[in-house]
Amino acid sequence: MLEVVALYRFVPLDGLETLRAELLRLCRAHGLRGTILLAREGINGTVAGSSSGVAALLSALEGICGIAQGEVKHSQAEEWPFNRMKVRIREEIITLRAPEADPSRQAGTYVAPAEWNDLIAAEDVLVLDTRNRYETKVGTFEGAVDPGIDSFTDFKDFVETRLDPAVHRKVAMFCTGGIRCEKASSYMLSKGFESVFHLKGGILKYLEEVSPQDSRWNGECYVFDKRVAVGHGLSPGTWIACHGCGAPLNEAEARSEAYEAGVSCPYCIDGLTEERARDLRQRHAAFGAGTAVPDVEG
């Protein structure tokens, strides 16, 4: 069984090139796979491997950036959820393109999973899903508003056009692992919203700690690796992903005539050229039904 660790922390970092090389050497030495993103604003990543290898990485990160003060979540996988190890330098560890959103300076109020149900049940609280539409289709909280965005940068337009600080005085937001919420909460506070809350540890921590009997979560949670989705207790989900476009597919979509393993699905078949289909079929025959894994979000 492989250990999977998702982590992030907003903390000022310098010497990124040196840090990148150091972390890549460490991860490869311990046989780890996954993605770590580095930026001047902090670190974000999901990595899988042996328990000892993951422990070595966390020990190093504690010395480098005090990762224990951020978010660190553990789960397991029976097969490798990533193909290889990548450490990349980015402008942001979660892209919003809003300099005023600085979680190291201000962020919303953390809400523990055990307290989340009571908060979102309140009539005066707007419950807001900050994830992209391909993630929200897999599952979300009861009564949550789906902004219908295709990328996190679109969240700014949603706030500008659909929300009003004078009307939406209490906002409770959530995302996969907590990182998007933390940055989104900082952005909303900078725009004059009064009370902004976010689920500590994100959906993953909620599904880990809250029993199915007490849960207000509907469906499964999309994750950025080959597992595609997880359920309560972070058990493997039922969704698969289209290798052609990466879209998550439920059982009905996987039975569609438009679905061809490794090649196409109902969401990409109309734009699929014969050349692209041929290349995908060749790749699928050579490497199997592996899913293309995007860089980590959360």
UniProtKB/TrEMBL annotation:
InterPro entries: Rhodanese-like_dom, Rhodanese-like_dom_sf, TrhO, TRHO_N
EC number: 1.14.-.-
SUPFAM superfamilies registered for this protein in UniProt: Rhodanese/Cell cycle control phosphatase (SSF52821)
An example Gene Ontology molecular-function term: oxidoreductase activity, acting on paired donors, with incorporation or reduction of molecular oxygen
Function text: Catalyzes oxygen-dependent 5-hydroxyuridine (ho5U) modification at position 34 in tRNAs.
Family: Belongs to the TrhO family.
NCBIfam families: PRK00142.1-4
Protein's name according to its UniProt entry: tRNA uridine(34) hydroxylase
